[in-house]
Amino acid sequence: MPWPTTSGLRNLDGDEAHLVRGAIGMMVDTHVAEIREESERWCYGIDWFDKWEGGQRLRLLEKITSAFFGPLMIEPAAITDAAADAVFYEISDLIESEIEQGSASQSPRSWRHSVVKAFHSQTGRLNELDAESTAVDPWRRVVTQVADAILGVRLYQRAEVFRDLDYSKTEGFLRDRGLPSDYLSKIPPLPSTREVQESIDRIQRYVFV
User: Fold this and answer.
1) Which residues lie closer than 8 Å to 166 by C-beta, 6 or more apart?
2) pLDDT the model gives residue 162
3) Domain residue spans in the chain?
4) In which element (H, E) is residue 9 found?
5) Measured between alpha carbons, how far is 21 from 29 in angstroms, rounded to an integer?
6) 8 A C-beta contact, residue 11 and residue 5
């Protein structure tokens, strides 16, 4: 049970797992299309994730997927924390797209419906937001609530301000929060074509269950 959620180390399950699996699956499709030059590069609004090449981002997605659903005990790093956060940015974007396209929100495959179910599974209560709502901002807030229960405080965001300060301040920030000294300096290796395909295969084994 390796992912450090706010309720302890565990794998995701039930409705929250269904939601996250679906989003990761969509992200894999996006990155594969980018690598094959079938579509433009897509940015999620998170520099710690967006700045890497498509293959590098797929390797990061593999790591967090293996921690969300498998036995991998992930080591703290800004790049993996950002990759996990990007999954929920993807969910918000998918909801916005669903609303723009006028897709039915009550469908079992609706992103809004899946978010409502994930929120209920986490809290035991129904969110006040109706699944028919077409207001984007309230949906982003609910997605953030779901993400908070899984990711907790986004330390990579807080650590960002220390990157250009005196190293002793950065070191103190990392130490006080129990983070490794290389939390901000880890980078994803540039994978070969074979390694990228291996990452895709491993992700799909967890996503399509």
Assistant:
1) none
2) 73
3) 11-207
4) strand 8-10
5) 12
6) no
